[in-house]
Design a protein that fits this description.
By secondary structure, the protein is mainly α. Helix content is about 50%, strand content about 0%. It is built from 11 helices and 2 strands. The chain has a two-stranded antiparallel sheet with strand order 1-2. The relative contact order is 0.09.
Length: about 260
């Protein structure tokens, strides 16, 4: 049998000649220090204004924090150096209008005012979390944790003492319904979210007059769920095809768009 480890033998020697306990984590001088876990408090401490008071009885501190949705840009476009890109609130505003114009065959089955509220609330957590994209490599579970923690802060800490907290609880429930994506209203608003992105994609491409190809975002079109919304999607895809055809250019993901347009014909 092998000998048991003793304090003298339970040590490791690095090639540098250092004699370290086996429990020691060897960190090279150039290794970055580990970042502390994300928290609402840490983000609030970085803001240029003092943090909001705890449990205010007025909604004014909440209103001020929402201003960040107007000034925080949607990060998916930033890699393409788009100037004057849309903010998070720009995105949610147009989504809310889209919900009001749901096709009749769909609107008859929906609670449209509820959908409009959902569109206005669904990205509210991004006022502190920011717009996390797949390029950020943040695990889905961590992204969900940050957003849920922020919504708890907004609706319970900032709005919990405002008029008995009723409106705050309502916002939190609407946000959770969107996240769970089980009701028809939530599925519709998820589709609206994707439609708004596709509209913005085509608008940026047209603004670029052929110098900006955002075809990688077309994959979003494949995830639209409701048939009525697929109709809207096809209109936008056709509009994009005609734009690029007029320039004599075959853009990225053209085959995907052609396949989707041919479905149902």
């Amino acid at each position: 049998m092998g000998s048991q480890a003793t304090p003298e033998t339970n040590r490791v020697s690095a090639t540098s000649g250092l004699d370290l306990d086996s429990s020691t984590t060897l960190r090279l001088p150039h290794d970055p220090a580990p970042l502390p876990p994300w928290s609402v408090e840490a983000v609030l401490a970085t803001l240029p204004t003092p943090p909001p008071p705890t449990a205010p009885t007025s909604p004014i501190p909440f209103f001020h924090l929402l201003e960040r949705l107007k000034t925080t840009k949607r990060e998916g476009w930033s890699r393409f150096h788009i100037k004057h890109g849309e903010s998070i609130s720009d995105h949610m505003y147009r989504m809310s209008i889209l919900t009001m114009l749901a096709p009749p065959s769909l609107s008859s089955r929906l609670n449209i005012p509820h959908c409009t509220q959902m569109a206005l609330v669904h990205d509210m957590a991004e006022c502190l979390v920011g717009d996390i994209t797949p390029m950020d490599k943040v695990p889905k579970e961590e992204k969900n944790r940050r957003e849920a923690t922020t919504m708890d802060y907004l609706t319970r800490t900032l709005l919990g003492a405002v008029d008995g907290g009723l409106q705050g609880r309502g916002m939190r429930a609407i946000w959770q319904e969107y996240e769970d994506s089980e009701t028809l209203e939530a599925k519709f608003v998820h589709d609206v979210d994707k439609m708004e992105l596709l509209l913005q994609m085509v608008e940026y491409e047209k603004r670029g007059k052929g110098s900006l190809d955002l075809g990688e975002f077309l994959n979003v079109a494949q995830r639209i769920d409701l048939e009525e919304m697929k109709g809207w999607c096809k209109e936008v895809l056709k509009e994009r095809q005609e734009f690029w055809k007029g320039l004599g250019i075959r853009p990225d993901n053209s085959r995907l768009a052609e396949t989707m347009l041919s479905q149902g014909e």
